[in-house]
Design brief:
Largest interface: A-B, 97 and 99 residues
CATH superfamily of chain B: MetI-like
Strand content of chain B: under 5%
CATH topology of chain B: MetI-like fold
Largest sheet of chain B: none
Helix content of chain B: over 70%
Structural class of chain B: mainly alpha
Structural class of chain A: mainly alpha
Order of helices and strands of chain B: HHHHHHHHHHH
Number of helices of chain A: 14
Distance between the termini of chain A: 24 Å
CATH topology of chain A: MetI-like fold
Shape of chain A: globular
CATH architecture of chain A: Orthogonal Bundle
CATH class of chain A: Mainly Alpha
Strand order of the largest sheet of chain A: 1-2
Number of strands of chain A: 2
Oligomer: heterodimer
Strand content of chain A: under 5%
CATH class of chain B: Mainly Alpha
Number of helices of chain B: 11
CATH superfamily of chain A: MetI-like
Order of helices and strands of chain A: HEEHHHHHHHHHHHHH
Largest sheet of chain A: 2 strands, antiparallel
Radius of gyration of chain B: 23 Å
Chain lengths: 286, 267
Amino acid sequence: MIHLFSHSLPLSVKYLFWGASFFLLLFFFLPLLVVLGVSLASRGLYGGVEWIATLDNYRRLADPLMGIIFFRSLIFASLATIVCAVIGFPLAYMVARASPRWQLLLLTLVMIPFWTNFLVRTYAWILLLRADGLVNAFLIWFGIQSEPLSLLFTDFAVALGLIYGYLPFMVLPLIVAIERISPHLEEAAYDLYASVGAMFRHVVLPLSKPGFVAGGVLVFIPSLGAFITPYLLGGGQKMMIGTLIQQEFLVSRDWPFGSALSFALMGTALILWFLVSRTSFGKSLP
Amino acid sequence: MRALPKPLVLAGFMTMLFLYVPVIILIGLSFNASAMGVTWKGFSIQWYEKLLADPSIMDATINSLIIAVLSTFFSLLLGLGLAIGMEKWRKGHASWMNILILLPLVIPEILMGVALLMVFVFLQVPLGFGSIVIGHMVFNLPLTVVILRARLRKFDPIWEDAARDLGASSWNVLTHITVPMLRPAIVGAALLSFTVSLDDFVVTFFVAGPGSTTLPLKVFSMIKTGLTPEVNALSAIMVVVSMACVGLSWLFQSQAYSFSIKHDSSS
């Protein structure tokens, strides 16, 4: 222990350090091991866990029905990530290159949705999308549609909810990345007769890559495991991995299979995180 | 510098509108006198009055506040130890810890929820206030550590060395140099932890027990059992509270920023 810290620390800080490490070990790493352990166990007769080792839960993942739900989740998460990147970039660029006075205001405006309750922000879309909701009222009022469309509980609603919910997670890392690009590089490109499009294509977009990578991870991983959005806007019919896990744990009470699903989800998330932390972005992390 | 390209600014404003229109409509509808649908039947605060008269809302609010205060306090205490300890670690040890400490922030929330549920059941920890506080600390602690470390790495160890050279004990260095310099980050981390805890739904959903309903759980059950305009009023209040918290946190962070500029120019 003497060799672990390079300076002398008060004893109280050392206790807190080890206390915090123990806390994370007990309530973060142990739970993940428990998920792995239970995923290899069998389901008890009345929904409990029986400690008989089996790979059955993983075999059940190969079920075509599971395949469809995993595939759907991957597609939704990818779609949300791509759309967030496309619509998030102009906003991020605008904030990053705004004059200092505007920047503080714009940045605060971007921060507010980031910290506003996710459940409430998802609920807002129920008000907009339901049959007597605002979008339908709008469409009928303008004569575009004579009958209300059923927009809620569709794939469209789930995708929209994911994009809306996780957009701030894309915009904030992009702002940080764009701010790090020297405006002189943009000037230099223009001086060398680059068009606006060429400047973005060859200067800003390639240099914003760390922001796209960080934002991509922050949108993709939670979208993949999303529970609130598919539950409230998909209405239970449009299942994703998150709603399936919830159902296995709280409705079917099949913990071992639910754990196998969770472990597959974590595996996907961790592989992605590992790949990303090996890139140049990973080395600039705090 | 030349002006920003017009189409880009337009697209940026469109995205900003997309972020705000649903929330603004939500707040607007919470003042609608009509109980059904979106037709405007005049301004009314009756849903807010109904909300305040509902004792279960008050209970859920108090539960949420107690849980947020406790999880913020303990995350801050443990986070200070972890952040300062990691900073004083010999070079080389810290790099793997950097990745590990971020893991709770990148793992899907639902996974944390079910994993904690199973651990609590197996360890026979009763589901309720305690389990929710622990569940919130699992993400608040790493969040606190990340914010504190960002600040710690900015300041010059020369201040601590100077105090030590003048005979200060390690405890005095901590209380007179390190913690005061960390204060803006401590306040910022506390406000963010508090907001995150107040807002959490997924982890809470899995580890809550009877009698420990928090505000987001209450909103969820209200949405599920049928849409009443009271949900709009409750949601609107939660949006406004989040705005206030972000505003406050922002104020402290910008103070921290101006402090570091003054500090850099004087050294």
